Amino acid sequence: xxxxxxxxxxxxxxSLAPLAAGCGGYGTRLAFNGGELYYTGAVxxxxxxxxxxxxxxxxxFDGRPKTAQLGKDGDSYxxxxxxxxxxxxxxxxxxxxxxxxxxIRQEVLxxxxxxxxxxxxxxxxxxxxxxxxLHRVGPxxxxxxxxxxxxxxxxxxxxxxxxxxxxxxxxxxxxxxxGEAYLCRLTAPPGADADAELAPVFKxxxxxxxxxxxxxxxxxxxxxxxxxxxxxxxxxx
Length: 237
Fold this sequence. Notes:
Strand content: 25-35%
Oligomer: single chain
Shape: elongated
Number of strands: 12
Helix content: 10-25%
Largest sheet: 6 strands, mixed
């Protein structure tokens, strides 16, 4: 069974044979479950090993040939992976990748800055995506993109606690901004989208997020399943 966190991303990744001979410029090569991970001299072998094990655990490296690289530019880590052309042209896919990068930041890189780079088969960048930042609220997790500030993310966490939506069970929220509107993606338990008793709670959440966290700006609230796939858009009607 694929990891819930990467199941929806795997079809978008390009399965490849290992890179051609003469690839010394990519760094030191490690093999993980059919995939290959290179790391540059700015990265330690221990960091690369942790990332490789994470990618196996999340089934990014799933037995099919895939190529990735971990490097570093100043204080920012760089995670390159071979992907289909146009992979990150879609805003929703970029959010998914940003969230995945946020998980790598926390579980592998001790929260250090990270840029994900969707690349061609020669590891040349096609699209760069900034990894999300994480703010913990009990067992709940609030991830935000670069378009949303830390203070706003913490205020969102406070609203979720006040409305008892962060109730001690693990939940994930991702925040983003589209023009003047904010986007809040929230994992919801199965059936919550059709629960008549929860409908007014979600509408109240949408209104309270706008008022308390985002200065009255419009908010789009997306209820998602455990893979962060959209289940329902909550409107104010």
